[in-house]
């Protein structure tokens, strides 16, 4: 069985580090299930197909199609549509040439005539077409114009899709029965944290391409409220990563005079990131999913936290962590995070062997291979 994984994320852009990792792990899991997997990889200048450890360049974009930071929004949108049309036309030819029989597509938002034409052409090739909808509902993530375009064309999507997978509880999307698949990880990729003993100090860590739905401002404002009482224990917040919201978080930190307590480390990977996890005691998951209309989530980062063995804080519901002993659930609202509550939570669990227990839980429940088993069975039933 030959499967091609289609995602248009720009792999050489910093914002795509998380999605790229997820895609590669999903591809590896499909291979473990016996599929011959082709992974589309889009960069600003080139188009590649990865098959196992071999990466082949299949197209070079013309200069007029290259995206630049200086592009105004209208020009950037025009280039995006030009690139999308070219990429999807090349893919249809590639699917024919390689006799691929399963096409797995990450949601092509906003749906438009180009993306609709692609799934229609793929369906004509008698492919099993799987559509991955990572967020639903997603309208709050789109600009007004993109929402308008999407609403014009998404009504036709269901005609060409065989299976929809989503981490949401929606029973049906685009008129197609959906299969719930929450996010998984490759557990062995993540180093188990070493714990550092401290006295009257707690270190929090948040790792993300920082956006408003991460809600890190709630932690900063929580530390501000906590410090008003001149507490004995010092609490520090380490923010790791870049992103659109970083400027606002830095400004808030300065405005509240918390430069000694909130540390911005920028983007970190490898040993440098591992050392930061070793330093820290509690990780911060997404605390602002309600800002984009979501009360339930399946956030990859908290799965990484679990694999590393660091307890974490979350505000949205996540079915993989219902009644999970080493997660602190906080309200999904705009209130500052109660730092005393985090301290009490850590006090209750710190004498337990939580690192080992969390790692074992991740191995058993959070791997991509186990997560994709139901989808694989559905695909095989359609072959």
Automatic annotation (TrEMBL):
Domain of life: Bacteria
Stored InterPro entries: Glyco_trans_1 (IPR001296)
Boundaries of every Glycosyl transferase family domain copy: 196-315
Protein name from the UniProt record: Glycosyl transferase family 1
Source species of the chain: Thermosipho melanesiensis
Record-linked Pfam families: Glycos_transf_1
Molecular function terms, GO-annotated: transferase activity
Keywords for this protein: Transferase
